[in-house]
Every structure is written in structure tokens, then in C-alpha cells.
Specification:
By secondary structure, the chain is mostly beta strands. The chain has one helix and 39 strands. The longest helix has 12 residues.
Length: about 500
């Protein structure tokens, strides 16, 4: 994903008291509406103050309040596109991990922090019309935040939450209570990650209450309702499905026409369909010839569908060649198919749990295997002292026999920083990239990019290396899973820091 390089800052003076790299544990609220200014509290260690914040979207800026530590104003331009934004805090010593701020298009409020609403009897009444976004946090252990809305018979209440997806350490739950106080719906875990959602057809007019609770993530042996100031969430409420934020809506591609009986589909093609009968897979014949090589891919999870797809490949004689279920890091399925026999092969798609109808959909893609490459980095940020060096590892992954000559360059480097880059091997593997700062290099803090390109050949392909936020604790995608704008900090020499600190203390 292309990112905008924004607010790169060089620090011309070292006459400040040395500090550690900043931390950013969370911020609240975790979003705001297009065209507004929002007061946001940043929690973490941010010395010296006022701290500087970087945003991956130039239409969303964060300005520190010089008098109040941790207080920023988020200025969201009317031109800002709704969706997630990465935010970092940086100082002359380094940069914080990135957090996710969400730009919304609907009206937004924050939970009433002055009044407790952790019981149905004290539920916060929402008088604002829907669609509405409620910013809240489950701050106390065993806490449930309740919000009440008035609904009419025939409406459908859509309730969705972003908690895990904005990298809060929580596994949220949604509860729905009817006008008589009885619980009528519980939602836990959504179709793509830990964040739940539900749609409820309203049977009778009245006041309905939505409860937000959570258990901790990553989980531990002591399972209880989790509470912490960092358990920040965004609750979306709507009665019109078109008002649901775009990032929470599944792909709306219509189903493809069904192939004629006995007529195989000729690759390359994409085929979108809905599984209509429970425990009944769909099978599609494909026209092939011996020696063909295809990339067969079934997408559902990554498109926002509830399907847990299973892919099966059958030879012309009907014998099963391979069954593929989850392919990390998601639940979609993929297989490199080499046609070894003449005749029509078949592809079967099923749901792991035999479900059908509604959002039990999938997209099947059968494309030629095309040599390609991608690149990832070992870190999201690097620190080098003036006169010193730091090493980055860029892993170049090649697929389908790619052997093109590739090179790596680093974009966005400040004056005085040079690179020493090893050759990119013909096979998948790590490449050493050394960042060397000359002794007179001025302090710097800003984004850089590692770009892998093919200098020769007709296509002259180019890929920007990414750092992935997905790790062993991930349980599905975040709103942003990777970043191309890595961070470089060039610090002053140790002796210059000491001199600057001494001068600042006088």
C-alpha cells in the first residue's frame, strides 16, 4: 500500500536533555470525523515535551498542546479520505510503535466518562440519530459499557466494533438487550478477526441496549472480563447497511453467471459465487492442457465474507489431487497447480463448516503462474549514531521461478547517510543493508523506504519493502497490517549529547 511521506523532521540542535525513544501505548479517542478537530489524549512516555507526531495521511495532522503533556489536537481535513491512518510519536532518540487512528464519515461522540453506564439501569442514552460512532474504552475489570437507542419495528440495527483491529489489547464482545431487559443477542468474533458484529431485525418498537465488553488479548489462563485504559474501541451503530463504514463492509461484487452444464471455464478467470446449499460444495470444471501452470486462489476471509473456504483440486478421472484449507496469515486457500494430465480438471469450493447463503460467498481466481517478488524488513525503525552504522535485513521473496536481477535502494535518506547493500540472491533470502552516517551528519528523524527494483528487462518492476504488524499473537487482520514508511533516526554523538545535556541543565 502506498503511503504518503509526511512530517519528516530534522533536528538541528542537540541542546536538549537526552531522552529515551518515545512510547505510545494508546490514544483516546481513536478516531474522528472528516472535516473536524478532535482533542486526543496520547498515553505513553513522550519526552521532551511537546512531542512531535507523524501521520501516514497528510490530511490528518496532530498538534501537541505545549502546556498539557499528552494532549494533541487531531486536525482532520475535509479532504481526508475515511479509513485508518498510522500515527507515530518521535523525538531525537527514536520513534514509537505505530498506532491506528480512524477517520470516519458519520457523526461521532465519546462515551460519557462522568457517569458510569456499566449496568442496564445506567445505560447511556444515545439521542443522536444514526449512523453514529461511539468512542469508548472498557476501563475497569468486569466492566460492560451500555448504550441505549430507540428503534422502530421493521428497522434493522447494525452494530459493529473496532477494538482488536485498531491494535487495542482486547477481544471484544457485543450484547443486545431488548425493551424488557432480556438479552437477545451475543456476538463474539467477527468473520475476519476478533471484532464482533451483528445485524438485528427489530420485532417491536422500543429502547434497545447494546453492551460492549471484552476479555484480554493475548489470552491467558485467568479468563475474565478485561478492563484497562488502553482497551479503546469504536462502536458503529446504523440502521442503513449502506452507512456502515467502508472498511467493515464485505466486497460487493455480484455473483458471476453459472457456467453452462458440461462446459468448462477457460483460464484465466475470476468467478464470484454464493454457496446456496448447506454441506454442498460447488464444483467448476476448467479447460486445460498438459503443461499448464496456474495459481489457484479462493478468497473469502480477505474480502470480508464469513466463509472459511476449503479448496479441492480433482484430476480428470475424478481423483482428488489436493485439499487446501487455511494458508497463513489468513483463512483463505491457494495452490500452485501444474497440469500433468490431459483432460478437464475440476476445482471444488466448500465452507469448512458446511454453511450456506447470505455472506457465505467466495471469489475463485485461476491465473497463470507469473514470476514475481516481494520484500519485507526485519524492523519498522532503525537508529544510527552520527559516525556509526545500523544494519537492516530486507528479505526478498521470489515466487514461480523468478530469477531477475534485482537491486535495493533506500529512499528518503538525509544528507550524510550512505548505504552499503549486498547483492540480491537469485533465490528467496535476506539481504544486508547497512546505513552508515558520517561523523558530521546532523540529527534526523523521518520516514524512509527500501525499494526493490528490476533495473533491466521490459517491465522494470518495483516493489516497496514492508514491515508487517502480524505476529504470533495476531488473530486476523488489523485495519492496517503493514507499513512501507519505515523510520530512521540519526542521533548526535554520545559526547555531543552529554555537552548538550550539560548546557540545557545550566
Amino acid at each position: 500500500m502506498k503511503r504518503i511521506l509526511f512530517t519528516a523532521c530534522a533536528f538541528a540542535s542537540t541542546a536538549t536533555i537526552s531522552a529515551a525513544p518515545p512510547t505510545l501505548d494508546y490514544f483516546y479517542p481513536a478516531g474522528g470525523k472528516v472535516g473536524t478537530e478532535v482533542e486526543v489524549t496520547f498515553a505513553g512516555k513522550m519526552d521532551p515535551w511537546p512531542a512531535k507526531a507523524w501521520s501516514s495521511n497528510s490530511e490528518v495532522t496532530f498538534v501537541a498542546d505545549e502546556k498539557t503533556k499528552g494532549k494533541f489536537t487531531a486536525k482532520i481535513s475535509a479532504k481526508a479520505k475515511p479509513g485508518p491512518v498510522l500515527v507515530r510519536v518521535h523525538n531525537p532518540e527514536g520513534v514509537s510503535p505505530a498506532r491506528i487512528f480512524v477517520v470516519g464519515s458519520a457523526a461521532e461522540i465519546s462515551e460519557d466518562a462522568k457517569e458510569k453506564h456499566s449496568a442496564l439501569s445506567t445505560s447511556q442514552k444515545l439521542e443522536q440519530p444514526m449512523p453514529l460512532t461511539v468512542n469508548g474504552k472498557v476501563a475497569g475489570r468486569n466492566e460492560v459499557d451500555f448504550y441505549t437507542v430507540s428503534l422502530k419495528k421493521g428497522q434493522t440495527l447494525h452494530a459493529l466494533v473496532d477494538g482488536y483491529a485498531i491494535k487495542s489489547l482486547m477481544d471484544p464482545m457485543l450484547h443486545l438487550y431488548g425493551p424488557n431487559g432480556g438479552r437477545i443477542r451475543v456476538a463474539h468474533d467477527g468473520p475476519v478477526n476478533l471484532d464482533p458484529r451483528f445485524s438485528f431485525p427489530v420485532p417491536a418498537e422500543g429502547d434497545y441496549s447494546v453492551g460492549v465488553a471484552a476479555i484480554g488479548h493475548p489470552p491467558n489462563a485467568n479468563v475474565h472480563l478485561h478492563g484497562a485504559n488502553s482497551a479503546v474501541y469504536r462502536l458503529y451503530l446504523a440502521t442503513d447497511p449502506k452507512s456502515i463504514p467502508a472498511h467493515l463492509q464485505p466486497v460487493s461484487d455480484p455473483d458471476s453467471p453459472k457456467p453452462a452444464e458440461g462446459k468448462p471455464l477457460a483460464p484465466p478467470f475470476e468467478f464470484v459465487s454464493t454457496l446456496t446449499k448447506q454441506h454442498t460444495p460447488e464444483r467448476i470444471a476448467i479447460a486445460t492442457k498438459k503443461g499448464d501452470k496456474f495459481r489457484v486462489k479462493v478468497e473469502a476471509f480477505t474480502l470480508g465474507f464469513a466463509t472459511d473456504p476449503v479448496l479441492r483440486i480433482f484430476k480428470p478421472d475424478g481423483v482428488l489431487l489436493r485439499e487446501i484449507d487455511d494458508v497463513k496469515p489468513n483463512r483463505d486457500a491457494e495452490y500452485p497447480l501444474a497440469i500433468s494430465l490431459e483432460g478437464d480438471w475440476s476445482i471444488e469450493v466448500a465452507d469448512r463448516f458446511g454453511r450456506a447463503g447470505g455472506d457465505i460467498r467466495y471469489r475463485l481466481s485461476v491465473q497463470p503462474q507469473v514470476p514475481d517478488f516481494s520484500a519485507t524488513t526485519d524492523k519498522a525503525d532503525y537508529v544510527v549514531e552520527a559516525g556509526g552504522e545500523a544494519e537492516a535485513k530486507v528479505t526478498v521473496t521470489r515466487v514461480f521461478g523468478d530469477t531477475a536481477t534485482l537491486k535495493i535502494e533506500v529512499k528518503g535518506l538525509p544528507a550524510g547517510v550512505e548505504t552499503e547493500i549486498a547483492e540480491v540472491p537469485e533465490k528467496t533470502g535476506p539481504v544486508s543493508v547497512k546505513l552508515k552516517a558520517k561523523p558530521d551528519t546532523k540529527p534526523f528523524s523521518g520516514p524512509i523506504q527500501f525499494v526493490v527494483s528490476e533495473p533491466e528487462g521490459e517491465e522494470k518492476r518495483e516493489r516497496v519493502a514492508v514491515f508487517s504488524f502480524q505476529d504470533k499473537d495476531a488473530r486476523g487482520p488489523y485495519l492496517i497490517d503493514e507499513v512501507t514508511d519505515l523510520w530512521l533516526t540519526v542521533t548526535a554523538k554520545a559526547e555531543e549529547k552529554k555537552e548538550g545535556d550539560a548546557a540545557a541543565k545550566k
